[in-house]
């Protein structure tokens, strides 16, 4: 991934946090007949110092048969348009153009498939609990009839992905002057929820001249 202008993020803890917060990524696997692409939710965790991603696909989705092949999971985070009007430097020299701010994480490696009943049950329970927490009446896997769940589990295959390399890119104008950074921050703060997330990411970078 092209990562100029101090945009590279390689801290494992920060990347795990970003992937977990985004929660949804595209599994991309080149193969002899083309490129397999599947969009799915992931559980992101740390195990023995390594990042582990877990998801599942429909058994009818042949992507799981590509287990063991080099792949990448792409997590696309918040993104927003950046107007030249955000920059104080526009009034000084006018040498500014629009750009796009975004956060993305790429996890490279291979995945394995699993379909054991207990493993799938643990995976589905963890995924459900992750997204139901905080609800007034959270739904649990145990709320569904056992025969119904058994039938559904026969129709899916679990995926476990242990990346060998994870790289992130935070493109939030952190390379610009202090004045233009402040203008970008203020502009993004008014650009909706994703803009606020990007503004906060920009604020985390130390200012340099």
Automatic annotation (TrEMBL):
Gene3D superfamilies: Electron Transport, Fmn-binding Protein, Chain A. Pfam families: FMN_bind_2. It comes from the Bacteria. This is Transcriptional regulator. It comes from Celeribacter indicus. The lineage of its organism: Bacteria, Pseudomonadati, Pseudomonadota, Alphaproteobacteria, Rhodobacterales.
């Amino acid at each position: 991934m092209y990562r100029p202008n101090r945009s590279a993020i390689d801290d494992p803890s920060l990347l795990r946090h970003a992937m977990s917060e985004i929660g949804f990524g595209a599994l991309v696997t080149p193969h002899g007949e083309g490129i397999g692409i599947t969009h799915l939710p992931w559980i992101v965790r740390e195990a023995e110092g390594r990042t582990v991603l877990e998801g599942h696909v429909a058994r009818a989705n042949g992507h799981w048969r590509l287990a063991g092949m080099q792949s990448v999971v792409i997590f696309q985070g918040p993104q927003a348009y950046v107007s030249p009007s955000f920059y104080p430097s526009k009034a000084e020299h006018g040498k500014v153009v629009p750009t796009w701010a975004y956060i993305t994480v790429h996890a490279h490696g291979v995945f394995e498939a699993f379909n054991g009943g207990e493993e799938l049950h643990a995976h589905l329970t963890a995924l459900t609990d992750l997204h139901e927490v905080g609800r007034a009446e959270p739904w649990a896997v145990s709320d569904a009839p056992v025969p119904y769940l058994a039938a559904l589990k026969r129709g899916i295959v679990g995926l476990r992905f242990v990346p060998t390399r994870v790289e992130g890119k935070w493109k939030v104008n952190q390379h610009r002057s202090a004045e233009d950074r402040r203008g970008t921050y203020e502009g993004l703060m008014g650009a909706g929820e994703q803009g606020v997330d990007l503004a906060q990411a920009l604020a985390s970078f130390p200012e340099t001249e």
